Amino acid sequence: MGKLFVLTGKSASGKDVVYKSLLRDEQLCLKPYVGYTTRPVREHEINGREYYFVSEDDLEGFERSGKLIERRTYPSVHGDWHYFSVDDGRIDLDDSSFLYIATPEAYVHLRNYYGQDRVIPIYLQVEDGERLTRALEREKQQSEPKYAEMCRRFLGDNEDFSEENLRSAGIEKKFDNNDLHECIDQVRKYILSFL
Hints:
Blueprint: E1 4-9, H1 15-24, E2 30-32, E3 36-37, E4 52-53, H2 56-64, E5 68-76, E6 79-86, E7 97-101, H3 104-114, E8 119-125, H4 128-140, H5 147-160, H6 163-169, E9 174-176, H7 180-192
Parallel strand pairs: 1-7, 1-8, 2-7, 3-4, 8-9
Antiparallel strand pairs: 3-6, 5-6
């Protein structure tokens, strides 16, 4: 029986780097679970790899057809951005295990949809000062940095990833991402314990 591993953590906690490393691990044999968003594509992102970048009309179509699993809406400085999961036929937990990056709120919806025994959270944490430094460096690399949005996300994480919200979601196991290689090794061993 396959599992859906949900990688979660505040912005700039290293989720993308850990995610890509775990997907390359041939022993884990994880497939990507790609979510959807209505936000604009960032530089170096590819449609269908980081997200499926769609319109609000597409989102409404998924909702009308009953395929929408969960949705989160964030008021950005550029308008509302929606992130969501869709039962689009690409996920077969009877056949494979998958890896997904999502929030604790999304994890709860996915767990309720696929079943508690099939959806496993993996929480990455990094000290806030280090996260802010990482976020700033990442934003500087964009051709049109969006610093106001970066700050909004950073501050919004305090609420989304509060200890109360983590407890409520049942997310107890945490992995410190201060040393990337050590963190990946610990997460890898944790995933293998379920496979």
